[in-house]
Amino acid sequence: MSRRPLPEALPGSLAFAVDRNSPTPLYRQIYQAFRDAITDRRLRAGARLPSTRSLGEEIGVSRLPVVEAFEQLLAEGYFEARVGVGTFVADVMPAPSTARRGAASSAPAPGRRVVALRPRKLLAKKPEPWLGGRGAFRLSQPAVEHFPFTVWAALLARHARNPKASDLHYADPLGHLPFREAVAAYLRASRGVRCEADQIMVTSGSQQALEIAARALVDPGDRVWVEDPGYAGARDVLAMAGARLVPVAVDEEGLRVASGIARSPKARAVHVTPSHQYPLGSTLSAARRLQLLEWARSSGAWILEDDYDSEYRYESPPIAALQGLDRDARVVYIGTLSKILFPALRIGYLVIPRDLVPRFAAVRDAMDIFPAVNPQAALADFLAEGHFARHLRRTRRIYLERRAALVEALRHELRGVVEVLGDRAGMHLVATLPRTARDRAVAERAAARGLWTMPLSACYLGPARPGLVLGYGGVAPSEILTGVRRLRELLTAPGGSR
Fold it and tell me: Residue 442 in contact with residue 454, Cβ under 8 Å?
């Protein structure tokens, strides 16, 4: 590497390195050196530049990379050429800002960056070490080892090798029509959802579905009911939309609708998980479903029904969706395939009341225009050819076995220490702890030992009940027993639950 000062026409303090062993081309190194000198104000406007030939000789390279660098700098406006005179540094740098004397200035101080205030709450959240790994007992972790990847790869390849011209251009903000038709047929048959393909919007998982719904329905300052305890991801989305969150308690019959009405009768919306309450696992009773729908109808509120893992129910058929009871088009239904198939798929969907479809489509178009077509095309075939139904049946048996293994291990190893809740459905359950326990501290110590248990208190906005939320979908039965025994050691040690 050679380092030489630039010719006398330029400031003597300016120097740059030419490294012949660097993967960066020589012309790029020369270009970068001049650009940095200009933006750092070491080279000022009007400075005359040497000829490309003399500069090349001066720094020990041929003329060609110098010419390429100068051409790039001229094209970007850092240099200017004056016919018959030469090449000079262009006047590109703004004048340094100075505050007016004798007057207060509201402009930000130099170097300060003004940012939006809403993300402050997200940044203020405490670290969540229980989300830092995979294995026992990580939430939302399906049995990916049982997914038919050979079939999936063949379907993706089918559409990648022979794409339709229409699939390569800008598409419908709602998503790929054949996939939406397959989703609508599946929801009508399995979830009792009243919908057609023109009401389906494909999203990047259920999280984006929540984001689109919040943008379409909620204005800053609007009150929105949220379950307490409930899904923190939904609370974050609604808070980012400027909503004022109204925590509403849940019990063994799900959301306490009367409590919500008493606290905020004119709320704009409610986020609810009626088929499998997150995280406690209760089911919204028929009486409360009808009460919630009547409140929404009479108050003009919207119901965001988050049906995140309702396909997995072990002691009865899956509970029909709340949306199927709706006769006033107040329910926006949210579902996902990412939890059934694999999380990296990032495919979810909305079922939108027909009169709101243009509004939701406009929001989607402003966000990311439309979802990627190829995965949807492959998924349409995955559903139509029966692969989805077979995978669902297979994983139901797997999760039933894993749930039984976890319940048995908890009752055998931690009898009298924990109480099991919400084990009738889904891919997680709750193990409550004594009222004096500090579940966050327990979860942090568990994460340090490779056990990914979420503290139940992290799901609350109000007074919290301590406990651990344990996922079992992605854990083999042999790992479950080992994990519970390690958890017992942690909890039964002196001060273990504090």
Answer: no
User: Residue 425: beta bridge partners?
Assistant: 313
Mean pLDDT of the chain: 90
Residues 6+ apart with CB under 8 A from 495: none
- For the stretch 354-389, pLDDT in tens is 999 999 999 999 999 999 999 999 999 999 999 999
pLDDT at 6: 46
Which pLDDT belongs to residue 367? 94
Q: What is the mean pLDDT of residues 111-132?
A: 83
Give me the domains of the chain, ranges plus CATH numbers: 2-89 (1.10.10.10), 148-385 (3.40.640.10), 390-492 (3.90.1150.10)
The reported pTM is: 0.85
